[in-house]
Specification:
- The chain is an alpha+beta fold.
- The protein has a domain at 49-78 and 89-187: tt1808, chain A (Alpha-Beta Complex).
- The protein is built from 5 helices and 13 strands.
- The strands form 4 sheets. The chain has a 6-stranded mixed beta sheet with strand order 3-6-8-9-10-11. A 3-stranded mixed beta sheet has the order 5-4-7, with helices on one face.
- Strand 4 and strand 5 (86-89) form a beta hairpin.
- The protein starts with a helix and ends in an 8-residue tail after the last strand.
- 32% of the residues are buried.
Amino acid sequence: MTVLEDRIEMAESGDELTLDTMFEWLEKMPIPEGYKAEIVGGHIFMTPQRDTHFQIIFDVLEQLRAKYPRKRLASDVRIDFPGRLNGFACDVAAFADRSVKDGRGHWRYQDVEFIAEVISKDTAANDYGPKKDTYAAAGVPVYLIVDPYTAEWHLHTLPKDGTYHGDISFGFGEEIDLTRTSVGLVLKTDEFPRD
């Protein structure tokens, strides 16, 4: 079946659209190599992965390895979040020690301790807007936005009642002190590349 045939069949059946259905469609689509796809509020976004993007992700993952074993770190894998059709492929996610995958083999958002998103020009509004709101509503304790275009990082902590109450921003070169969070580390940013 094609994606169009699947959509017609679903529309005729009266079934409600689900993340699983949308991801099944994505698996059938010819997504170009080097792109990542995620679903934000029921909209599919595909973004190219640039070298700068990868270098920052890799740097953050390497630093997180001081606390997190490899099996509790993820990059660009599907995590379903609360809200309407939110299947995110976070750039970096770190999971609590108690973490277990659900019955379908997906990480649970309830186990996320840390998320980092590295800004891409075309989807920056998602990271600063709906994804930030969704992470706060889900109770993600630490959300880091790294913006290679402005050479700044933005740290969001203390989620309560659907919003982050702790916000701090600095330029690349300033350390990110996460010692008073569940992460318990200091991240260095002096080697983050700029776009």
